[in-house]
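Holo prediction. Input below; ligand is pyridoxal-5'-phosphate.
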Amino acid sequence: MIFEERESQVRSYCRSFPTVFSKAKMDKLWSEDGTEYIDFFAGAGVMNYGHNNDYIKDKIVEYLQGDNLIHGLDMFSVAKKEFLETFTKEILEPRGYDYKVAFTGPTGTNSVEAALKLARKVTGRSNVIAFSGSFHGMTMGSASLSSGADFRKSLGTQTTGTTFMPFPTGFFATFDTIRYIDEMLKDDHSGLDMPAAIIVETLQCEGGINIAPNEWLVALRELCDKYGIILIIDDIQAGNGRCGTFFSFERAGIVPDMVTVSKSIGGSGMPMALVLIRPGYDKFNPGEHNGTFRGFQLAFVSGKAALEYRASYDFDAETVRKGEIARNYIEKEILPLDPTFEMRGMGLLWGIDTHDGAKAKAVAKVAFENGVIMERSGRNDEVLKVMPPLVITDENLLKGLEIVKNAIKEVYGL
Ligand SMILES: Cc1ncc(COP(=O)(O)O)c(C=O)c1O
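Structure of the complex:
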């Protein structure tokens, strides 16, 4: 195959899903030989609005047919204007947010780099606190903030400027991390440098579907206020409606100082990333975080259409309703299959923690052979991740879950 012959060893997802994909529609994908797959992966959170969603696709086609601007660096354009207007009207204003929007290079990691850079500039400090179980990207700054040893090792150089603290999950579920950080910061002999920022995912996706409790997030916000630390929420995967609200942190009623947003903000797989910045912190000099592809106009068009689409019906309520279908099914049909199983999640994002990486891998493999694309995450990749496009039909959701259940039965010999 040309892929094995020519493509770098760095390729990864194709190893879990070894087929040649050609078509996709809403909650399904097809390989070139016509095999059909139910999508429980959603392009790692990019396809929340579904593959080739007709409403969004029509707007893209119309834009292309009109010979409109495609690439615009960060110049003013009609597409960017309309995206910003729609984002303001549909997302920011109803929530009372007054964020400035910085478009970065169109990947999640680039928006994390921008937020880091800005937090360090604004505070004049260098250290940043991140959490165990975190994932923020694969470039120098973002990988330095990512807890997985292999991610940091892949940089091939020492990472500096990050202090990891325990995320409130597993052994640390009852540990008062916030109090611990507070005591360390109070003590000028603790060895902990005052951080520029604390970066956190309210729900760790790659970390294994670990949820920060609301009161923990509120206490974190208070801690940041107490010391003038910038609170950055990385909403790249858990945002865009995945948790049942547009931003994942809405449930805690907190307002972060910066929010990194990417993946489904581009509406249909068109790459876009941005940082939301509290106005007082928007201290970038012009061009200080530049990048050639910050103005991919099709992403603005597609992202705007996606926001219109979500406004056209009770999108978040539907996400929560379908999430309950998944939760009920997993609770009743899957958890009883093995006493070690646990489930965690919210909205339409559920993790089945098998506590066994080898078995989880085998289950995902069998599920794929039987028509479900499903990723794993967490320590040893032992958490099966149910993360379909938010537009999945009830029928396909249940069908997919049944395939997962049967895959578990096969692997566990039940
Ligand atoms: C929470 C979070 N932050 C950052 C990233 C990095 O995004 P990208 O892969 O687009 O660089 C990811 C990707 O999965 C993510 O889940």
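Residues 115 and 248 are 18 Å apart (CA to CA). That is the main takeaway for now.
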